[in-house]
Structure prediction request, 523 residues.
Amino acid sequence: MFDTLSDRLSGAFKNLRGKGKLTDADIDATAREIRIALLEADVALPVVKEFIAAVKERAGGAEVRGGLNPAQQVIKIVNEELVKILGGETRELRMAKRPPTVIMLAGLQGAGKTTLAGKLAKWLKEVKHQTPMLVAADLQRPNAVTQLQVVGDRAGVPVYAPEPGNGVGDPVQVAKQAMDEARTKQYSVVIVDTAGRLGVDAELMQQAADIRDAVTPDEILFVVDAMIGQDAVNTAQAFLDGVGFDGVVLSKLDGDARGGAALSIAQVTGRQVMFASNGEKLEDFDVFHPDRMASRILGMGDVMSLIEQAERTFDADAAAKTAAKLQKKGGKEFTLDDFLAQMQSVRKMGPLTKIFGMLPGAAQFKDQLENFDEREIDRIEAVIHSMTPAERTDPHIINGSRRARIAKGSGTEVATVSGLVERFFEARKMMSAMASGKGMPGMPGMPGMPGMGGGGKKGKQQAKKAKPKRGSGNPAKRAKGPAQPAEPAPGELPAAFGGQLGSSNFELPDAFKNLIDGDDDKK
Prediction:
């Protein structure tokens, strides 16, 4: 959603690189680019004005002009101001001192309240270790009750639905009865799904206010579709005036809209964004962290969210066993079964494009990530499952006839099988070296690399045999002394780290190239 905004902001910062000092003209030009980027992203005009004024005031101060790197200082200021307009600090749910905690969802029809109710319940159950119950108080939208029951079943959460809906029943009475049900069965959290409308009207406001008065919620969450642009801000303000709410939930953050609503609501309403829904699955639900979202917008990744996601997904004991295998015997005990298990664990974290997008600097590989085919992982799984246990344990035994059989069994080409086996050996070699603390194979000048003089046994032997170079036979050259290596140009790697004198071209080791490119070149 924020791709266009990220690209425009990156373009604005490019003009600052290489400058030793910022002039007023530089600051004005950068502020103009940022203003255009925010307006094109559909951020509310009052928010844009306030944001630009704050950035210009801070960028024009001595803290930047006296800095060593003005571009980085400006990026830091923009990041901090983005965090402010996104709500500042992360806000947690308020839990009742005496259960149950009541959470009421409000918003327009089509904003995704019903699906979000299931996502929130699943998150409370698995992350917060609560016992939630869903309440079907949307009795007007066709099949809303049935949808909530299906969502609740998928989330493994009970649903209180005494009325069939479709225009039958009193939602206020259902909400009251749900509270008695929750206390009787000792549910710790009650999530009330209310009706929405195609637009803000008096009937909607009154019904939402009546339910609010009946259950006295601890939290009223306003669910807003992040794709509806400026109207999201107007709707939020109308709900705030008519019913009131404590926090905002942004749904459909995975859409391709401009996303200005996310940058405007917190600043305009004074209510923080608490959660974000960014996909169709029940797992696609996250706590909204303003600092992390600002970091993503500026293309600096979101490593903390990636780490938290990995901690929830990976089994610590299994990871320790895998690391031990990689450290022993040069990683030869690490088999294709282990490789497959690791790959499946990574897939549980979500789409690989989303995972890679959380890494710093991923914006420069945006086109490659967009074109990445997730089905490639399915093909790899099919190939490995078509192997015998002996072949998975020792891929060296996979000869030509075995590759043909595996390719036929997995519905792929022989070249695909060959490419997978070769990449597995390269990946195992790289992971084994990293697990053993020897650096990365094929990376020039890194410690422990054979033939690179970086601490390997062979390198030490070669160092002992080395003899001092004799001077030139030409008296004129000998008088000048030994030739000194040229200094690398700015941004160029020194020769000791793989750079070439007079050239700034630097290529990744073949192991990395093959891992990124896959087996496309082998087909």
About this structure: The longest strand covers residues 219-225. The longest helix spans residues 414-435. The chain has a mean pLDDT of 75.
